[in-house]
Write a structure and sequence with these properties.
Elements: H1 11-16, H2 20-29, H3 41-48, H4 51-59, H5 63-74, H6 81-89, H7 95-110, E1 114-115, E2 122-123, H8 125-131, H9 147-150, H10 156-165, H11 174-186, H12 188-196, H13 200-209, E3 215-217, H14 224-231, E4 236-239, E5 242-244, H15 247-253, E6 271-274, H16 277-301, H17 317-327, H18 331-343, E7 347-349, E8 357-359, H19 361-367, H20 371-384, H21 414-426, E9 432-434, H22 436-446, H23 452-456, H24 459-474, E10 477-478, E11 481-482, H25 484-489, H26 495-513, H27 519-527, H28 556-570, E12 582-583, E13 588-591, H29 597-606, E14 608-611, E15 616-619, H30 622-630, H31 635-645, H32 652-664, E16 669-671, E17 675-678, H33 682-690, E18 700-703, E19 706-709, H34 713-722, E20 728-729, H35 764-782, H36 802-815, E21 819-824, E22 830-841, E23 844-849, E24 854-859, E25 863-868
Parallel strand pairs: 16-20
Antiparallel strand pairs: 1-2, 3-5, 4-5, 6-9, 7-8, 10-11, 12-13, 13-15, 14-15, 16-17, 17-19, 18-19, 21-22, 21-25, 22-23, 23-24
Helix pairs in contact: 5-7, 5-8, 7-26, 10-11, 13-14, 17-18, 20-28, 21-24, 22-24, 26-27, 30-32
Length: 872
């Protein structure tokens, strides 16, 4: 074990000096480190330094913490806190930067990207390699190589010429000459004197390179002002025709700052408009009801079997267009509703040979639930889904089209971005809609884009814009502001409380950062954490920037509870379904609000929807009335239905329409001959035979009252209806067939699982167990052992003969000593363990295993060897 009084010599020693709460903070922030659980702290440190893990951690830093890491990458290794402060705040100092720097350093320490005390801060090697400047990967700081790095291939004679031209005494070797140049360029007064003598054109060249990129091109015969810089080492050659501005020179010209514009504080989310909270909630509730109606209309349109599934999966462009026309919506919005129904488990493919999309059995259960609960299910599915409808119509990495319900639409960052955008809205006063650009600026500060490729494909920015529009469509927001039920969906407190809490935390972070060095902030942050071995680890989610970043998205059980609470808040705001319509003389019926389901279903068969909105207009036509008669209704049934549900008398034109269609309905009978037509009135059959439009049906007379054809019954029905007749289909027994829509359902299906963005954050129980196992494994790996006569190198298992193993175990049972063993399990995995033997019998040893913190029994033949622990 390392002595807490001595500085750590490695990241493993630094982790070993942490308490359990601090390790919990690390593992929450970087859950990939415990997948699987490391055997000890040395393995944890090794895993924390791998390139993939470091890149993932860097991508989750806010802009100021990342700027701090970038400054450490161009500082000395190790660097003091004062050196880092100079790089961040400059020679003149910046009180805001100085106040926030402890927080940033503490965040880097928490995530094991920086270790060491304030006198010897070290950026982990992999992070330094990623962030340090190089010709292939320029640093975001715009700084170039140091004088030592730039002159590494230069001849000793040339280096001495640079020293002499700079006015320095010659040295006896190149190393001391480079050190002299470095000290000169880092000395503010001497550099100011040297640059004061430079030609104006030379200073202009330096000003163009100072903020990066630090590389420039020169000709084989450079101009006099360039030659002046080259002779004094203010520009150094890196390749033929290429020069670079040394880092020390650039820092002098920048007055010591590593970044042109440090951003210690996040940009504020600016209000775009302010509305009364009641107006916001009412607008959002109206949108929520429209969302339910749209999903119902979509799945009703696909009730008898929806579009076919493409061979590669998903909807075809033609089917998406047809669906958009049926919903009277633009295609991108139609794609959103299709994807939302799929994410909620209401829609899936049926898995048949001729595979088609259809509603699932869960859709029928969903329809039976109250409207607020149905909305809560949709909202929860939207908030947690990784499928992103905004990508529909784009191209994937292989230049293949992305289709609705098809593969390639999952984006693991989507749930976090949606949750973060809504959290930013929740932090605003109630009724306040944000300016969209300020939301994007805030998100870019919290997760800055690293590298030109990321900036070209700003996925998080697009996800944020889609979130704002989709939240409005779904009724989570109203007029751009977060509604009360939208706030409950996040599990968030009222806006005033959120703002006050944020202010308090920010003030606490600032006061903690006002101390000298980064250690004060770390101590202030850890003061509220339990540190005793018996204390439970904190359950709340930790973030490296308190007061700036919101808690992580809720766990699935927590999200379900929050969605139910949101539904309860929404329920009183939704309109009550009506049981009546208003019949008009122009063969229309007006539904002044949402209708109860039985009424809406029956009216949807009897009439066609002409327009939707606050009031729905239905139009009665001969075809729609015939559709109701085909479904088994009679004229008297239709009159009674309308009289029961209309607040106005049945208009005479509508009564005549129903009676006229009913009088002709079923006058003709169609059956299978392939098909036949029979009618008691032979004059009607004579008219059909004489009609030129019937020539395509191939009719022939079998009897005065019967016509036959080779066409199938369905084609014959459609042909006669197109001619203006109203035939009815009949069965083989001569009974009229009643045609009702057949609801096609898929087999039971589960909603698509979200694609996680790496390992999920561990819960408190898993963290406690993982830390206990890591501590125990580290104890087994680092506890001093007595000499066994054979040298045991670090990491190797002890080796003793079976007789020695048995004798040592029996002796430990008598004395109560703790021993160190090597053990190979049934899978062949070798581990080290520290155990206190209790009894040895029957070829087994029963012992208290300090590694597992429990009593276990081990077969002696699997113990590779045993060693006694040292007295200390």
């Amino acid at each position: 074990m390392s002595n807490p009084a001595t500085p750590p010599r490695s990241l493993a020693e630094a982790l070993r000096a942490r308490d359990d709460a601090s390790l919990a903070v690390l593992l929450r922030a970087r859950p990939d480190l415990i997948t699987p659980v490391p055997t000890d702290l040395t393995q944890l440190a090794t895993r924390a330094g791998t390139r993939a893990s470091v890149l993932r951690a860097l991508e989750r830093l806010d802009r100021f913490a990342l700027q701090t890491a970038e400054a450490l990458a161009v500082a000395g290794d190790p660097a003091s806190y004062q050196e880092l402060l100079g790089l961040m705040a400059g020679d003149g100092g910046d009180p805001v930067v100085a106040g926030e720097l402890p927080r940033a350093v503490a965040a880097l320490r928490d995530q094991a990207l920086v270790w060491g005390d304030d006198d010897r801060l070290r950026l982990v090697r992999t992070a330094r390699e990623v962030l340090a400047p190089s010709p292939q990967h320029p640093s975001p700081t715009g700084l170039g190589p140091t004088v030592r790095e730039a002159t590494s291939g230069m001849s000793p004679g040339r280096i001495q010429e640079l020293v002499a031209a700079a006015g320095l005494p010659s040295t006896h070797d190149p190393v001391s000459a480079v050190e002299a140049l470095t000290k000169l360029f880092g000395h503010r007064k001497k550099m100011a004197k040297l640059l004061a003598a430079a030609p104006a054109e030379s200073r202009e060249v330096l000003s163009r390179l100072v903020w990066g990129p630090p590389y420039g091109q020169i000709t084989p015969e450079p101009a006099a002002h360039l030659r002046w810089l080259l002779d004094r080492g203010l520009l150094l050659p890196t390749a033929p025709g290429t020069v670079v501005l040394p880092r020390e020179v650039a820092l002098h010209l920048r007055e010591g700052r590593a970044h042109r514009e440090p951003e210690p504080a996040p940009p504020a989310v600016e209000p775009g408009a302010v509305h009364r909270p009641q107006v916001v909630d009412a607008t959002a509730a109206g949108q929520a009801y429209t969302a339910l109606a749209t999903v119902e209309e979509l799945l009703k349109d696909w009730d008898e079997g929806g579009p076919a599934v493409l061979r590669a999966g998903g909807l075809s462009v033609r089917d998406l267009k047809r669906t958009a026309v049926a919903l009277d919506l633009p295609e991108p919005i139609a794609a959103f509703w299709v994807e939302l129904a799929y994410a909620a488990g209401l829609l899936a493919s049926d898995g048949e040979a001729d595979e088609r999309y259809a509603a699932t059995p869960a859709y029928d259960e969903w329809l039976d639930r109250p409207p607020a609960e149905r909305w809560a299910q949709l909202a929860e599915a939207w908030l947690t889904a990784t499928r992103t409808s905004g990508l529909v119509g784009g191209r994937d990495a292989k230049d293949r089209a992305l289709s609705a319900l098809g593969p390639g639409l999952d984006r693991s960052a989507a749930p976090e971005v949606r949750h973060r955008v809504l959290t930013l809205l929740a932090a605003l006063p109630e009724g306040t809609a944000p300016a969209a650009d300020s939301v994007l600026a805030r998100l870019h500060w919290e997760r800055p884009l690293r590298g030109p490729q990321q900036r070209d494909d700003d996925l998080r920015g697009r996800l944020a814009r889609w979130t704002l529009s989709e939240a409005e469509l779904l009724g989570v927001t109203g007029r751009g502001a977060l509604s009360a039920h939208g706030r409950a969906l996040l599990g968030a407190p009222p806006a005033t409380a959120t703002t006050a809490a944020t202010t308090a935390v920010t003030s606490a972070a600032a006061s903690a950062g006002s101390g000298s060095g980064a250690g004060s902030a770390a101590k202030a942050a850890s003061a509220a954490q339990p540190t005793g071995p018996g204390d439970k680890l904190p359950v709340h989610h930790h973030h490296p920037a308190p007061g700036f970043l919101a808690p992580a998205p809720l766990s699935p059980p927590e999200q379900a509870v929050a969605a139910a609470a949101a539904g309860r808040l929404l329920a009183p705001l939704l309109p009550e379904p009506l049981d009546h319509v208003l019949l008009q003389a122009d063969l229309t019926a007006v539904a002044p609000g949402p209708l109860r389901r039985p009424l809406a279903d029956a009216l949807g068969v009897l009439a066609d929807v002409e327009s939707k909105g606050g009031a729905t207009v239905y139009r009665f036509t001969p075809a729609s009335v015939r559709r109701a008669l085909d479904a088994g209704r009679t004229a008297s049934d239709l009159h009674a239905f309308l009289a029961e549900h209309s607040r106005t008398p049945i208009p005479q034109p509508l009564a005549y329409l129903i009676d006229d269609v009913a009088r002709r309905h079923g006058h003709l009978r169609v059956g299978a001959a392939s098909a036949y037509v029979r009618c008691d009135d032979d004059t009607v059959l004579n008219e059909i035979m004489a009609d030129k439009r019937a020539s395509g049906l191939g009719l022939r007379r079998l009897a005065p009252t019967v016509l036959a054809t080779q066409a199938d019954p369905a084609a014959l029905l459609e042909g006669l209806r197109a001619m203006g007749y109203a035939p009815a289909a009949e069965s083989a027994e001569g009974d009229v067939l009643i045609t009702r829509a057949h609801a096609h359902r898929t087999p039971p299906r589960t909603a698509p699982e979200p694609v996680p963005d790496g390992p999920p954050p561990p819960d408190s129980t898993l963290l406690t167990a993982a830390i206990r196992a890591i501590r125990a494994g580290d104890l087994a790996a680092t506890t001093p052992r007595k000499s066994t006569g054979a040298a045991v190198r670090g990491g190797e298992l002890p080796r003793t003969t079976p007789a020695e193993t048995l004798a040592t175990m029996q002796a430990a049972v008598l004395t109560g000593d703790t021993v160190w063993i090597g053990y190979v399990n049934a899978e062949g995995t070798a581990t080290q363990r520290v155990i206190a033997p209790i009894r040895v019998e029957g070829g087994f040893v029963t012992a208290y295993d300090h590694t597992a913190d429990e009593v276990r029994t081990y077969p002696l033949h699997r113990v590779t060897g045993v060693a006694e622990l040292a007295e200390d």
